[in-house]
Amino acid sequence: MKQTNIAVIGAGSISEAHLKAYDRNSDAKLYAICDLNVERANAAARKYGIANIYTDYRELLADPSIEAVSICTWNNKHAEMAIAAIEAGKHVLVEKPLCRTVEEALQIQRAVRSSNKILQIGYVRRFEPKAQMLRKFVDEGEFGDIYFAKTSYIRRLGNPGGWFADIERSGGGPLIDIGVHVIDIIWYLMGKPKVKSVSGNTYRQLGNRANVENLSFYKAADYDAGKNTVEDMANVMIRFENGASLLVDVSFTLHAKDESSIRCFGQRGGFEIEPELVLVTEKHNTILNMQPQTDSPGFQFDTAFQNEIDHFIDCVRQGKEPISPVEDGVEMMKILCGIYESAAKGVEILL
Ligand SMILES: NC(=O)c1ccc[n+]([C@@H]2O[C@H](COP(=O)([O-])OP(=O)(O)OC[C@H]3O[C@@H](n4cnc5c(N)ncnc54)[C@H](O)[C@@H]3O)[C@@H](O)[C@H]2O)c1
Question: How many domains does the chain have?
Answer without folding.
Answer: 2
